[in-house]
Amino acid sequence: MSKSSKKPVDVRWGLVGAGDVCEKKSGPPLYQLPGHRLVALTRRDAARGKDFARRHAGEYLPDLPSLLAHPDINAVYVATPAGAHAEQTIAAAEAGKDVLVEKPMAMTTKECRRMVAACQSNGVLLAVAYYRRGYPSILDAKARLDANEIGRILEININDQFPPSHRLDLVHYFAGDVDSVRTEKHEKGLILHAVTRSGAGLRMNLGWKEVAGAPEQVRIQGEDGEIFIEDLKGGKTSLKSMKGNRELIYPPLPWTHWGLIENFGFARAGRCPLACDGLEGLKSTAVLDTISALEPGQPYQKVDYNNPPELNRDTAKAHNFLG
User: Fold this and answer.
1) Helices (H), the chain
2) Quick one: DSSP state of residue 298?
3) How many C-beta neighbours within 10 Å does residue 170 have?
4) CB < 8 Å & 24+ apart, contacts of 65-70
5) CATH 1.20.1260.10 for the 136-252+293-318 domain, yes or no
6) Which is nearest to 19 in space by CA: 46, 62, 49?
7) Domain ranges of the chain
8) pLDDT per position as a tens digit, 17-39
9) Rounded to whole angstroms, how far apart are CA atoms 74 and 62?
10) Residues 198, 155 contacting (CB under 8 angstroms)
11) Which 3 state secondary structure label does DSSP give 107?
């Protein structure tokens, strides 16, 4: 993350939906990072919302309008279920607040584009919580790819220990936009085959089920070497390149969202770009919308990020790929 500007970080958060994700992953960075403060939060379950405020930080408020009217809040973190993201993000934008919205960004690409338009027209930031872009192991791999250490990417393999929307986001981060996709039935479920516009191939299971103790893994095969992130959270990476073979270890973050929320603060201060803005964040949704409309075994179909098919909710639910 470039931090060329000297402007101080000043993020005064309003939190919408202080649930399980905030307890385990994202809540503490909102008030533990330098320059960040959790001013207020709201949650439909008032008792649990008040308990969260008591144990963490911030004032409990009864509803979204009261939170958006709070004069001290300058950024809103939308951490509710995905079906509420679009309307809550748009309301925050119209109140003049910068927004960080949880993933998946929304239920459909059309909703995502409404969110982007609302934030653009109101002159506020929109970031999407694809927080693995803030992991030290991922940032290191991206820097090495940008430096061409392993040459042109030929293939990306990602295991199914985390949601497909996050996995597709990493494909976009590392290899750029997806050109075409197809699916096939397999004993593990529905298998996705994809090709990026840069020519990289991808094969992955669309379903997912976290197995306790099993690491999240990404293998990037290039023309001149390989990056194998053996443990995304633990930061263990094996690098094979023209410069030789190395083992790299990056200490894990205090909380999974730490790097992403830190980036948001720096971006507000003009010190770096957002790790994942709204236009970048909607790409995974567009690909998943496209996949949902496919029949297994069909030839490759082009991905149209501007106008993908309508989400087939039955297919998405049957194969559990909206997490």
Assistant:
1) 20-21, 29-32, 46-55, 64-68, 85-94, 109-121, 136-146, 164-175, 258-268, 278-292, 313-318
2) P
3) 25
4) 65/91, 66/42, 67/14, 67/16, 67/40, 67/41, 67/42, 68/14, 68/92, 68/95, 68/97, 69/95, 70/14, 70/39, 70/40
5) no
6) 49
7) 11-132+257-277, 136-252+293-318
8) 999 999 999 999 999 999 999 99
9) 18
10) no
11) coil
User: 203 vs 76, 170, 318, CA distance in Å?
Assistant: 36, 13, 19
The reply to whether 136-252+293-318 shares the fold of 11-132+257-277 is no
Structure tokens at 302: 């082009």
> Could you please report the per-residue DSSP string of 1-52?
------PPP-EEEEEE--SHHIIIIITTHHHHSTTEEEEEEE-SSHHHHHHH
Alpha-carbon dihedral sign for residues 296, 302, 304, 309? negative
Strand partners, 77: 15, 100
Nearest C-alpha neighbor of 103 from the set 12, 194, 167: 167
> 98-101 and 178-186 as β-strands: parallel, antiparallel, unpaired?
unpaired
Q: pLDDT digit string (tens) for 210-265?
A: 788 899 999 999 999 999 999 999 889 999 988 889 999 998 899 999 999 999 99
181-to-202, 252, 321 alpha-carbon distances in Å: 9, 33, 15
Assigned CATH topology for domain 11-132+257-277: Rossmann fold (3.40.50)
Note the pLDDT tens digit of each residue in 185-216: 988 788 999 999 999 999 999 988 778 889 99
Average pLDDT over residues 125-144: 97
CB burial string 270-304: b at 16+ within 10 A, e below: ebbebbbbbebbbbbbbbbbbbbebeeeeeebebe
Q: Which residues pair with 194 in a beta bridge?
A: 181, 202
Distance CA 303, CA 287 (A): 7
> Diameter of the chain by CA atoms?
58
- Compute the distance between CA of residue 200 and CA of residue 75 in angstroms, rounded to an integer: 37
Residue 146 CA to residue 93 CA, distance in Å, equals: 33
Integer Cα distance of 110 and 185 in angstroms: 28
